[in-house]
Amino acid sequence: MISEKMMQLGKKSSIIREIFEYGKKRKAEIGAENVFDFSLGNPSVPAPQKVTDVMTKLMNEVPAEVLHGYTSGPGDMNVRTAIAEYIKNKFGVDANAGLIYMTCGAAASLTITLNAITEPGDEVIAFAPFFPEYRVFAEQAGAKFVTVPCKQEDLQIDFDALEKAINKNTKAIIINSPNNPSGVIVPEKDIIKLTDFLKEKQKEYIKEIFLISDEPYRELVFTGEKVPYIPCYYENSFVCYSYSKALSLPGERIGYIFVSPTMKDAGDVYAAVCGAGRALGYVCAPSLMQYTIAQCLEDTADISIYEKNRKLLYEGLTDIGYTVIKPDGAFYMFVKTLEEDAFKFYERAKNFELLLVPSDDFGCKGFVRISYCVDTKQIENSLPAFKALYEDYKK
Ligand code: PLP
Fold it and tell me: How far is the CA of 28 from the centre of ligand 1 (A)?
C-alpha cells in the first residue's frame, strides 16, 4: 500500500497551477498576446547581472569538487557567517552562523521550521488570506492548521478574531508581510500589538508561542514603508527567508532559516531545525547557489518594473470601478470580485481571456489575486478586457 494522503496531495494540483496550465493551452490556441495570464508568482524580471557574473567567476575559479560538492548539512560556514553579518548590520540583531540554516527556498524553510517545533496536538495559526501551501506544510508536520480572517476592509490583522482562535494548544503563528496574495504590509504598530499580545499569551499559558516570519517578499516594497524585522520585537521568532523573489532565483531553490538569538533555548531549537532538515532530507542546500548569494546579499533584481506595473494596474482597475486592496509590496494585487462567488467570477473573467486566481484557496472569499510580475505590455493590453468584464457585470 502507498500513502493515501500523499497520493491525494499529489493528484490534486493547486488551482494556480491548473490556471497556469489552462493558460498555456489557451495561448497555443489563440496566441500568447491574446491571453492575459496573471496566475503565477514567477518573477518576470531577470536576476541582476551580478548574479551571472558571480556564478561565472565561481565556476571558473573554484575547483569543481568544492563548487559542486556537499557543504556541511546546515550550509557552508562562510556563507552562513556572511548572512549573519548582513542581518547584524541591517537589523541590529545579534545573529551568528550557528543560528542560520541554509535551505531550498522559503518552502523548505517553513516545512523544516514547522517540523522542528510542532508535536501532535499543536495548532499553527495563519492569517487569511495566506499562501495555500501553509496548510500542507503544517498538517504534514502533524499540527492542526487554524486560520484567522483578516479585517475585510484592509486585510490587516483582526485582533478580536485572533483572540478567539488562540488557545493553550497554539504552538506558532505564521506571518507573511509583504503578503502573498494581497500585497499588504503589516505596519509596525500592529507588529508591536501582535508581539505584546503573544508575550501575554505565553505568560498565560506558561509556554512558548513561536512567531514564524515568512518573508520572501521583504525587499519588494513600493511605498518606502519599513517592514518590521520580527526578531527585533519578539524573542521566540524564526525568519524564513528566500532569494526566489527579490533576487529572481525561484528555480535555484535557495533561502535560509534564522533562529532568533533571543529565542528560549536557542541552541536546542537550532538543533531541532537541523534535525528536521535531516529528517526531511533537506541537508546541504545547492552549493553553487549558497556561494553565489553570499556575494549578492545587498542586491535585488530591478524591482522598479513591478512598481510601474503596480501603479498602472491599480490606477487602471480603480478607474474602471473595481475595488482593490492597495498593495504596498510583493507583486500581487487583491481585487474584490463583482459577485460573491470568486470561482464564478474567475470563470466569467476567462471569457475575456483574463486568468485570475479565485481567493478561496487563500482562505477567504470574494476576491481574486492578480500576479503583476508580468510584462508591462500585458497589463496595458489587459485593461480593455478588465473594462469589458466590468461592463458585462453592470449591464
Ligand atoms: N511563502 C510565500 C508567501 C510564497 O509566496 C512562496 C512562493 O510563492 C513561498 C513561501 C515559497 O517560496 P520559495 O520559492 O522560496 O520556496
Answer: 28
Same domain, 188 and 325: no
Q: Quick check: is 60 in a domain?
A: no
For residue 183 and ligand 1, the question of a CB distance below 6 A is answered with: no
Q: Which DSSP string corresponds to 55-101?
A: HHHHHHHS-HHHHTS---TT--HHHHHHHHHHHHHHH-----GGGEE
Cβ 255 under 6 angstroms from ligand 1: yes
pLDDT digits (tens, 9 = 90+) for 152-192: 999 999 999 999 999 999 999 999 999 999 999 999 999 99
Rounded average pLDDT per 10-residue block, the chain, 395 residues: 92 88 96 95 96 98 96 98 98 97 98 97 98 96 98 96 98 98 97 98 98 98 94 98 97 98 96 98 97 98 96 98 95 97 97 97 96 97 98 94
Kindly give the distance from the C-alpha atom of residue 240 to the centroid of ligand 1, in angstroms, as a whole number.
10
- In ligand 1, the atom with minimum distance to the C-alpha of 110 is 10
Phi, psi of 289 (to 5 degrees): -75, -35
What CATH number has the domain bearing residue 12?
Answer: 3.90.1150.10
If asked whether residues 265 and 347 sit together in one domain, one would say no
Residues 305, 284 share a domain: no
CA of residue 149 to ligand 1 center, whole Å: 20
